[in-house]
Amino acid sequence: MQQVATAQSQQYIGEPLIAVEHVSRVITTRTQKTVILDDVTFVVPAGSLFAINGPSGSGKSTLLNLLTGIDRPTVGRVIFAGTELQAKSEDALARWRGTHVGIIFQFFQLVPTLTAQENVLLALELGGGLPRSAWRRRAQECLEIVGLGAFGRRLPSALSGGQQQRVAIARALANDPPVLIADEPTGNLDSHTAAQVFATLASLTERGKTVVYVTHDPRLAARAAARIDLLDGRIVAQHNAGAVVAEVQR
């Protein structure tokens, strides 16, 4: 069933949400210079399911850190809805992440001593976007979105791996960010459970969310509406709706 986009996501529909312009990330020491990303340029449309595909060591995780403002490019710009992230201070970036980006990790990163609902509540407390009186209702709503409305009182140890990852998705949704960033979200799951979790993640685009996920699995990457293929820090191909729209000869 088609879901209604939330207010924060709705304002971006129909425009490029993220633009990465000629970004390079270089680490320089006294003895060597290591190029992790080399002149990377692409656009993530609002409301899309977007994949960053590539083998280990291709620069995927570094690129995610740039998209979330955790790291800064050596050269180039990362622009979110018209705002250059590198122009923000570290404090401003931290506040921006709390309301604009939900991050989903491969290994869930749930607090083991907190229940599923309390893990979502923690994100609401840190985000500060809603009054305290609305937190519990919002946490329950997020758990219901991922199909775990009846599991809010369970500790992570009482949940399966797939359920824990869905709690992590609910936590990422807590502050109603327009973008969800997922780092190998199914990499720690068996194939059947991975398919269920990915379906949950992909369905969020029906709510107006933009979902960017990293994967080294070509089959999972192919399910995205658009994607880039990375190799040794460079984009070697860009795909849109399953078709190659640009390919770099190396």
Tell me the layout of helices and strands.
Blueprint: H1 7-10, E1 16-28, E2 33-45, E3 49-53, H2 60-67, E4 75-80, E5 83-84, H3 90-100, E6 101-104, H4 116-127, H5 135-145, H6 161-173, E7 179-183, H7 191-203, E8 210-215, H8 218-221, E9 226-231, E10 234-240, E11 243-247
Helix pairs in contact: 4-5, 4-6, 5-6, 6-7
Description:
This protein has 250 residues and is an alpha/beta fold. It is built from 8 helices and 11 strands. Helix 7 links the parallel strand 7 and strand 8. The N terminus is likely disordered.
Brief summary:
The protein is α/β, with parallel strands linked by helices and 250 residues long.
Mean pLDDT: 90
Level of helix content? 25-40%
Strand order of the largest sheet: 6-7-8-3-9-10-11
Main structural class: alpha/beta
CATH architecture: 3-Layer(aba) Sandwich
**Low-pLDDT segments, ≥5 res:** 1-5
CATH H-level homologous superfamily name: P-loop containing nucleotide triphosphate hydrolases
Number of helices: 8
- State the CATH class: Alpha Beta
- Approximate shape: globular
In CATH, the topology is named Rossmann fold
List keywords for this structure.
single chain; 250 residues; alpha/beta; Rossmann fold; seven-stranded mixed sheet; four-stranded antiparallel sheet; 30% helix; disordered N terminus
